[in-house]
C-alpha cells in the first residue's frame, strides 16, 4: 500500500514553478517567430517591405504571446500554491490531532 509522502507534492509544486518560468519565455519567442513569419508572408504578397512588416508582426505577436504566457504561468503557479496549501493543511491537521490525543 502506498503511503502519504508530502515531498512528492512539494516536488510537483517545484516542477510547476519551473514550467511557469519557462512558459513565459517560450511563448514570447514562439509568438515573435510566428508573427515574423506571417509579417514576411504579408510583405511578400503586398508590395510593402517584407522585413519591416515581419518585425512589426514579430513585436505584435510577441506581445500577445507574452500576455498569454503570463496568464498561463500564473495558473501554473496558482496550482502549485494550492498543492502546497494542501500539504500545509495536512501537516497542521496531523499536529492538532496529535495534541488532541495526548493524555494529560
Report on the structure:
The chain is mostly helical and 104 residues long. It has one domain (19-96). Helices cover 88% and strands 0% of the residues. It has helices spanning 6-45, 50-100. α1 (6-45) runs antiparallel to α2 (50-100). The longest helix is centred in the C-terminal third of the chain and has 51 residues, at 50-100. The mean pLDDT is 91.
Total count of helical runs of at least 4 residues? 2
Overall form: rod-shaped
What is the β-strand count? 0
From the alpha carbons, calculate the radius of gyration and give it in angstroms: 24 Å
Q: What is the end-to-end distance?
A: 34 Å
User: Which residues sit in consecutive blocks of at least 5 with pLDDT less than 50?
Assistant: none
What layout of secondary structure does this protein have?
Blueprint: H1 6-45, H2 50-100
Helix pairs in contact: 1-2
Task: Provide tags for this entry.
104 residues; 0% strand; rod-shaped
Brief rundown of the structure:
This protein is mainly α and 104 residues long. The chain is built from 2 helices and no strands.
Amino acid at each position: 500500500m502506498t503511503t502519504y509522502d508530502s515531498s512528492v507534492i512539494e516536488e510537483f509544486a517545484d516542477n510547476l514553478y519551473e514550467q511557469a518560468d519557462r512558459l513565459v519565455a517560450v511563448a514570447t519567442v514562439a509568438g515573435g517567430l510566428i508573427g515574423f513569419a506571417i509579417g514576411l508572408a504579408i510583405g511578400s504578397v503586398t508590395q510593402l517591405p517584407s522585413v519591416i512588416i515581419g518585425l512589426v508582426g514579430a513585436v505584435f505577436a510577441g506581445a500577445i504571446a507574452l500576455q498569454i504566457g503570463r496568464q498561463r504561468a500564473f495558473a501554473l503557479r496558482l496550482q502549485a500554491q494550492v498543492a502546497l496549501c494542501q500539504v500545509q493543511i495536512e501537516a497542521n491537521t496531523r499536529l492538532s490531532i496529535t495534541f488532541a490525543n495526548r493524555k494529560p
